[in-house]
Amino acid sequence: MADYLVIVESPAKAKTIERYLGKKYKVKASIGHVRDLPRSQMGIDTENNYNPKYITIRGKGPVLADLKSAAKKAKKIYLAADPDREGEAIAWHLAQALNVDISSDCRVVFNEITKEAILESFKTPRPINMDLVDAQQARRILDRLVGYNISPILWKKVKKGLSAGRVQSVALRLIIDRENEIKGFEPEEYWTVEGAFEKSKKEFDALYYGNGEEKVKLSSEAEVTAALKNAKGKNYKVTNVVKKERKRNAALPFTTSSLQQEAARKLNFRAKKTMMLAQQLYEGIELSKKEGAVGLITYMRTDSTRISDTAKQEAIQYIEGKYGKDYLSTGEVKQVKKKTNSQDAHEAIRPTSAMRTPEDLKTVLSRDQLRLYRLIWERFVASQMASAVLDTVTVDLLNNDVQFRANGSQVKFPGFMKLYIEGTDDQTEETTKLLPEMKIGDEVKATEITPKQHFTQPPPRYSEARLVKTLEELGIGRPSTYAPTLDTIQKRGYVQLETKRFVPTELGEIVHQLVLEFFPEIINVEFTAQMEHDLDGVEDGLSEWVKVIDTFYKDFEPRVKYADEVMEKIVIKDEPAGEDCEKCGNAMVYKLGRYGKFMACSNFPDCRNTKAIVKPIDVKCPTCEDGEIVERKSKTKRLFYGCNKYPDCDFVSWDKPISRPCPKCNSLLVEKKLKKGVQIQCTGADCDYMEDTTQ
Predict the structure, then answer these.
(1) What is the mean pLDDT of residues 219-237?
(2) Cis before residue 605, ω within 30 degrees of 0?
(3) CA Rg value for the chain
(4) Reading across the β-sheet that carries 656-661, which strands appear in turn?
(5) Which of 371, 429, 430, 464 has the fewest CB within 10 Å, making it most exposed?
């Protein structure tokens, strides 16, 4: 019989930890929370200090009974749930259910599942931290008060299955606000002038800068003509050469949000998928029969960029062995400023051993596990490497008063860039552009001067990565909430992803408008950020959770009553589609579904005919010249464009056609989506006309 019972959250962890601890320890899993607020009712006594009514979660009775049975046989119980607020609450609930004294040394925390970390953590058990528990309770109760008060009203007034919440409603607001920005955007014309130059038979590019010393913005073709009219001949004089050495520092190791962002940019992973894979890597992967399951990364819910000294030393050892001493970081790696929190023992997300390279794990990890591990490993090792050194050159070229400026750069010392370069949201990459050697007084020859017309572009829709980043910057939500929030607003049908960008649905617009009208504080960014700050204060032992909840609820409760009485029932009417059902002859109508509008027969349920809506884009078909181009969706939800006369006309294009013809050959122009933005291109077989619309 084992002397000690250890309770963790996951069965995968239980197996690994039991092997590390030895025969005197029995390790069992609670499989997450065992108690929670009831689903069927509010479960909070608003008249009695917001006292929560906890019940055993449905289906967890046998798990709890097994834990109680094991607890009776054990001399001591250790509660080893995850090292965060949620884990602390699980430990507290288990202590309540198993009659464990919360002030005894019953709580064990570790940030990685390795033998050393596990054994070390059992040397320093501690009491349950009630500040952390209260912080979790406060968030859970607050979310319950918001959700269980607003959601029934939305069900009654709009349709069943809807919800609102502190974080999800703000996320929806951001997406809708951005959509309104895009709709209201008026493009502005601007021009650039590109010059191709030659020096000692070496070619290089420069951009028009201005007249003399003054930078000039060009807004029309007439301004371009006026700006260039004083240029005499093709010879330009070098008037200024500025050479600088620039250092570029490595990105810090991953936090939860930066991991989600980078995995989206580089691996095309959704936030939910990233967290699922990270959980697997944290809980342990079977490496060999001898080693068994080993945790490969540290705990994946963290907003800290701190790294332990042991991990640093291991990284230094690896870098020195692989790249040499020159590649070691010379200074202290900068940390992101973090609030003071005595319980912040978390590290950044890093590999449990820098010596365990991605190449070593190719045979034991799945493709996606390996890709995520490689990302985490490279980011961590690179964070401990030397800065990259770049040589930059700026050269001014003058003809009369017409000035061009050439910029060049080259990597002098790659440093961390030898291993890893952080991704960007617009997918731009730093390119090396070499200029020929030039000095003041030299002459260069212009071989071609090309004016180019551009139009400013609206701000882009939010990708998952950009939305997570924005929520984090605004102080909305916490590492553990980003992935479930993005999942919720999609499941509710408030938004959908189009070309990996969030677009609000009609349903999302309706719900947002109602919440904005009746519960404005719920979607007020400043209010929500302040609420997060107040809740963090509970965690830090600076605020009482009951007071935080009460301050919110005493203003919120009257709004709920008012909304219930005043909010008008919204009937989402079936709008006539203007065509008849081809199966039964009844009128087709537009219906609002989970993913927006679709066409359905008005004779439902007798006729279940449905059709996707085709959206005209005001472009004549170039093939039959009779039909109209319409926007359609493939079975995989990918947008494409085809003729509305199909199947009589077979025109189809993945790229969006535009209404004006090519100025060179009169063929069809299309919007070509590139990594850096959108480019307008001609579809003519022998025509190379294109317009760069990126800013």
Answers:
(1) 94
(2) yes
(3) 31
(4) 656-661, 668-674, 677-682, 690-692
(5) 429
Identify the residue whose tokens are 């989600």: 260
Whether 252 has a pLDDT exceeding 50, the answer reads yes
């301004």: which residue's tokens?
223
What angle in degrees, to the nearest 10, is found between the helix axes of 130-157 and 545-566?
A: 0
CB 26 within 8 A of CB 18: yes
Q: How distant, in Å, are the alpha carbons of 76, 156, 324, 428 from that of 162?
A: 46, 10, 58, 39
C-alpha–C-alpha distance, residues 167 and 169, integer Å: 6
Nearest CA among 561, 511, 506, 474 for reference residue 169: 511
* Three-class SS state of 66: helix
Q: Residue 690's CB: how many other CB atoms inside 10 A? A: 14
SS3 63: helix
Q: 388 with 409: CB under 8 angstroms?
A: no
258 phi and psi angles, rounded to 5 deg: -70, -30
Cα–chain-centroid distance for residue 1? Answer: 48
pLDDT band at 289 (very low <50, low <70, confident <90, very high): confident
Interacting residues of 451 by C-beta distance below 8 A, sequence separation 6+: 191, 192, 193, 221, 224, 228
Mean pLDDT of the chain, nearest integer: 89
Cβ burial of 614 (10 Å; 0-12, 13-18, 19+) is: middle
Amino acid at the residue 257: S
Write the CB contacts of 615 (distance below 8 Å, at least 6 apart in sequence).
630, 631
299 is known as an active-site residue: yes
Q: Which of 53-57, 306-310, 610-614 has the lowest mean pLDDT?
A: 610-614
> Is the predicted pLDDT of residue 430 greater than 80, yes or no?
no
Is there a contact between 633 and 498 (Cβ–Cβ < 8 Å)?
no
The DSSP 8-state label assigned to residue 59 in this structure reads T
Tell me the residue type at 523: I
Does 694 score more than 60 pLDDT? no
> Which domains can be identified in the chain, with CATH numbers?
4-128 (3.40.50.140), 137-184+460-566 (1.10.460.10), 189-249+388-455 (2.70.20.10), 256-383 (1.10.290.10), 656-695 (no CATH)
Q: Residue type at 413? A: F
Distance CA 140, CA 50 (A): 11
Using CA atoms, how far apart are residues 375 and 361, in angstroms rounded to an integer?
Answer: 13
Set 25, 50, 282, 299: catalytic member: 299
Q: Which of 692, 594, 538, 522 is nearest to 165 (CA)?
A: 522
Q: How far is CA 8 from the centre of its chain?
A: 29
Per DSSP, 361 falls in state G
- What CA–CA distance (Å, rounded) separates 86 from 302? 12
Cite the DSSP H helix spans in 502-572: 506-518, 525-539, 545-566
Residue showing tokens 């608003």: 46
- What pLDDT, on a 0 to 100 scale, did the predictor assign at position 342? 31
pLDDT at 341 (0 to 100): 36
